[in-house]
């Protein structure tokens, strides 16, 4: 199994996958991880956004056995732009593919 993260959770992901009985190997980049896994017919654990972005028509996207959390933050100067602040939930859903509080 290959894995790749977009944050500093790589060591934690590796440990959790190992505890589940996998033999995880880090991928060089998210895209490369998915391409290598697809070519080898192996599983890859990557962020959902990346799985959707680089999914092959034959790919099967399943929930992670190692749940995590990614935060989307809006950083602006005062005053907050109402149009962006109001759109943040939809932007987060678009990026993360799910509802976030």
Walkthrough of the structure:
- The protein is mainly alpha-helical and 101 residues long.
- It has helices spanning 10-19, 30-40, 48-53, 82-96, and strands spanning 2-3, 25-26, 44-45.
- Helix 1 links the parallel strand 1 and strand 2 (25-26).
- The model has no long low-confidence stretch (mean pLDDT 81).
How would a textbook summarize the main sheet? Answer: 3 strands, parallel
User: Strand tally, please?
Assistant: 3
Order of strands, main sheet, comes to 2-1-3
What percent of the residues sit in helical stretches (DSSP H or I)? 40-55%
Structural class: mainly alpha
Shape: elongated
How large is the share of residues in beta strands?
Answer: 5-15%
Spans of at least 5 consecutive residues whose pLDDT stays below 50 are none
Protein name: LysR substrate-binding domain-containing protein
Organism: Kitasatospora terrestris
Summary keywords:
about 100 residues, about 40% helix, 3-stranded parallel sheet, elongated, single chain, mainly alpha
